[in-house]
Structure formats: structure tokens, C-alpha cells
Amino acid sequence: MKSQGKQGGWYTGLLMISIIMVVVLFVSAPWIPLALLAALAVVGVIQGISWLFDNWKHRHDHTHAH
Known about the structure:
Layout: H1 2-28, H2 31-59
């Protein structure tokens, strides 16, 4: 049962290190995470437009494939 405790501590430590790294990165260069968020937003918008176009195309496709 000791390994489970060590594993939990390792995970918590890794999480804390990750949070600290993100905070330090944001303080030192705030444009980096903002650029990543902007890139994710752009990808989301492109995916949404693609999905809407496919939906529209499917609804307006009157060719009978029998």
C-alpha cells in the first residue's frame, strides 16, 4: 500500500510543478498562453464551420444514391 501513497504524492507534485510552470510562463511572457488559446479558438472555429458546411451539404444533397 506504500506505492499508492507514493504515486499520489508524485501526481500532486507533478500537478503543482505544472501549475507553477504555467504561472511563471504567463508572468514572464503573457502572449505565449494567449497565443495558444487563440490558436485553439481558431481551430475550434474552423472545425465548427466545417461541421456546419457538412451538415448543410448533407441536407441539400438531393441526389438519390440507390
